[in-house]
Write the structure tokens for this entry.
Amino acid sequence: MRLRAWTTLVCGFLAFGAAALAAPTIDRSSPSAVVKSFYAWYMQHSWVSQIHAARPYFTANLYTTLATAVRNQRCLDEAIVDYDPWNGSQIATVSYVVGTAVVHGNAASVPVHVMLSMVRDRKPFAGSPVTVFVVRGPAGWQIDDVASSGGRFAVAVRSDLKLPSKRPLTAAERTCLTTPI
């Protein structure tokens, strides 16, 4: 009896753990669908700490850019990504609305309207406009870049990620930076 209960408990934990680690379900049928799939995932996860889990949403180029920036930030203890590119700010997203995609052949732009949360009064407010750029490849639609244009500046992830400072690196930093992403 104990063995059966123990076996059931272990199998339950294994099934739960496997489900938690399973790849996200991604709808790649249209540009808006893949963006909606990503934002649904994003609202439940930290894209910085779980960048590898987000990989299926991104083109190889965007994933490499983001993963390298996250690794550099961890290795150098510097703010390489000092804002959330998915909402264009340093404030938490509380909700989002994915707009209608504008498609040009195998490329599309998808507007995303985000609502941010003020820490002090907890009243949501509209964030900067965010545009997600999507391309169609053999795997279907994937996110290739994201840009926001609000406040005093406009940023696009692939072109505007900060480079690490020019200071001399320690041996530990050099080792960390040479590990594969």
